[in-house]
Amino acid sequence: xxxxxxxxxxxxxxxxxxxxxxxxxxxxxxxxxxxxxxxxxxxxxxxxxxxxxxxxxxxxxxxxxxxxxxxxxxxxxxxxxxxxxxxxxxxxxxxxxxxxxxxxxxxxxxxxxxxxxxxxxxxxxxxxxxxxxxxxxxxxxxxxxxxxxxxxxxxxxxxxxxxxxxxxxxxxxxxxxxxxxxxxxxxxxxxxxxxxxxxxxxxxxxxxxxxxxxxxxxxxxxxxxxxxxxxxxxxxxxxxxxxxxxxxxxxxxxxxxxxxxxxxxxxxxxxxxxxxxxxxxxxxxxxxxxxxxxxxxxxxxxxxxxxxxxxxxxxxxxxxxxxxxxxxxxxxxxxxxxxxxxxxxxxxxxxxxxxx
Amino acid sequence: xxxxxxxxxxxxxxxxxxxxxxxxxxxxxxxxxxxxxxxxxxxxxxxxxxxxxxxxxxxxxxxxxxxxxxxxxxxxxxxxxxxxxxxxxxxxxxxxxxxxxxxxxxxxxxxxxxxxxxxxxxxxxxxxxxxxxxxxxxxxxxxxxxxxxxxxxxxxxxxxxxxxxxxxxxxxxxxxxxxxxxxxxxxxxxxxxxxxxxxxxxxxxxxxxxxxxxxxxxxxxxxxxxxxxxxxxxxxxxxxxxxxxxxxxxxxxxxxxxxxxxxxxxxxxxxxxxxxxxxxxxxxxxxxxxxxxxxxxxxxxxxxxxxxxxxxxxxxxxxxxxxxxxxxxxxxxxxxxxxxxxxxxxxxxxxxxxxx
Lengths: 356, 356
Prior knowledge:
Chain A is an all-alpha fold. Chain A has 18 helices and two strands.
């Protein structure tokens, strides 16, 4: 059995969201998008308007990344959270969603510089096209723009939430620099890294939606918890996909994490379960980055042998279950909010079932 | 006459602030520092407290740059502006001054990555010690911390001012990337670049001081104008020093701008006044970066021949005069404020007389 086949098996086994059959999984985000389509159009217009500049390179570079798009999951979460918490009008949620996307785009630009990545979402990364310098500076610009957009709405709660999230993201990225090639990283340290890298912004994206709605704290806390756990599940699956995905379909370079010696959960689980010879293999390839032809295949085989992808997906499922629990604490009062809640529940399955 | 001698002559001629003899110039910042010494101590404590992190690399790298220090001119301007506008208590000006220094430090970290600089203030730059990746990410962290600090004081005016300044800075840096090697840059474009690079943060540093004091707009506008014009003068002199300074004394690599093909005012003035052969020299060295031994000396000689340093210093003097005018619009009501105003006036002469 190949690693990829094993991975498909893993996903087919998923049982997190029983109401969603796996073939429906990819429709979950589309459904959410449809529910907030009017606001999402305004988010896109806000994004385009606010990345304009007399300096032509800024809209060129920012537009390249933003247009290549992905599913705009984070701004969707902001819009959906605001609606779920009872906000149905005004520009604030739209501005916040655009700010969240700007912060996300800024971190992607800086990440690609830090990781020397050449591919992003299946196309050449911005730094590969325009160089590292432009990526650093346009990232800074988008980050500033995010705060400018937020300031206009005069809501200190949301400003605080996104400033805090940004600090957590940056400090987590620095932590990842220092733990990148250390197989003695424990699971807690790994989880801290993915929390900072992904879950912090997912959590903040949801929280600011609740804050824009001026919802009471227990409601804001619940939607924040949902975002946090969804983000953890999302990143765990991302780390699994780096050893299993269909490259063309996923639009990322499979094996990047391995090439960079990133210590992710699939590697940690395979390393911990490995015998002396296998551990020596991991130390050579991950810690000293002494890699040769066939090493990625060997890594995949060892990950398969020890069920490390299965273990990673199971960890994602546990976070997915917590995300569902958090949603259950919210009691929508209207049919429209109920639809949003169901769509958010289905997004959990989408995140875990990505790449299929 | 050597270029350096000519430069000294330029400075000796300075007449901007008649009350300050040039040998007293370097004391101007010290005097301002003494006037706000109690607050400045709290700023330093705030800076140290807020650059702490579980991630050891963050305080290491940030502390390296912040400790190497310079004169902390920007936070000084914030504290002095707040006092001048009547604010004598509370933490807000202290937080803002620390935020301004964090934003400045973040831009320095990113600039050094963008410029591939190896020296900063006479020591190895942070990117030379810890690498570009760490510099990008710690810069992001400090930038986020600046906003976290500001949010705590719940003043939307200051948040807006520094978010706007940050956007201007980033967009100006991108503009500089695209005009770096173009001798057809006109003076207005050059001034836009230095406005974004330096004057925008000087202006904002002063403005937030006035806003923290809840001063009426004409007063805030005047102190902002002072900061803006001081920043323009400061950067013009910085660009002159790159062709004339005593490297050890200045703590920067003389000739960096030339090596990078930066189109600064000394170069523009020499280029515009040059004959065909001289213009060909500038095109070869600045536009195509085809540089050989002796080219920097030739560049300095041409700049000297056409009085281009004198022209640059004169431009700085004009901004210095406007900074003085802006200060004159403020009418301090107390002796303490009068002392601050005089010290701010002397800082203009310091900025123009730097490097001596």
